[in-house]
Design brief:
- Helix content is 23%, strand content 25%.
- The chain is α+β, with helices and mostly antiparallel strands and 99 residues long.
- The chain has a domain of 69 residues.
- The strands form 3 sheets. It has a two-stranded antiparallel sheet with strand order 1-4. A two-stranded antiparallel ribbon has the order 2-3. It has a two-stranded antiparallel sheet with strand order 5-6.
- It is globular and about 45 Å long.
């Protein structure tokens, strides 16, 4: 059974989402995955070895290392990773849920 991750939501500009003067809460698995993919190692003081830093892979011709790094980080964060793919339009699609 997948665990739901409830957290404070972020809006499209990655700021705290506020509705009616209060923080909103959301199921935050996609938000966590996005942050793990886009942030660099060292960005989070509490866990400086986490994150992928996807922008560091932009000039690589072989994206297999990026996919491998994402799978490893998702697993270290407690997710059960079924698949991570880079689709032709450049979007990263993952099938990973928290255990």
């Amino acid at each position: 059974m997948a665990r739901q991750m409830i957290d404070i939501g972020l809006d499209t500009t990655e700021d705290l989402a506020i509705s009616s003067g209060d923080f909103t809460t959301i199921e935050s698995t996609p938000q966590h995955q996005r942050q793990l993919i886009l942030n660099n190692k060292g960005d989070f003081k509490q866990n400086p070895l986490s994150c992928v830093g996807a922008f560091d892979y932009l000039n690589d011709e072989n994206f297999a290392e990026l996919i491998r790094a994402i799978s490893i980080e998702f697993t270290k964060d407690g997710m059960d990773v079924a698949s991570v793919q880079l689709v032709p339009d450049g979007t990263i699609v993952s099938d990973a849920i928290y255990k």
